[in-house]
Amino acid sequence: MSATDAEQIDRANSSGRTPAVFVHGLWMLADSWDHWLPHFEAAGFAPVALRWPGEAATTTEARQRPEMIAGRTVGQVADHLAGLIGTLDRKPVVIGHSVGGLLTQILAGRGLSAASVAINPAPFRGVLALPLSTVRSLIPMIANPTNRKRAKPLTFAQFRYAYANAVSEEEARSIYDRYAVPAPCAPPMQAALANFNPRTEVKADCRNPQRGPLLIVSGGQDNAIPWALASGAYKRQKRNTCVTEIVELHGRDHALTLDSRWQEVADVALAFVRRFV
Question: Ranges for the AB hydrolase-1 domain (predicted)?
Answer without folding.
Answer: 21-268
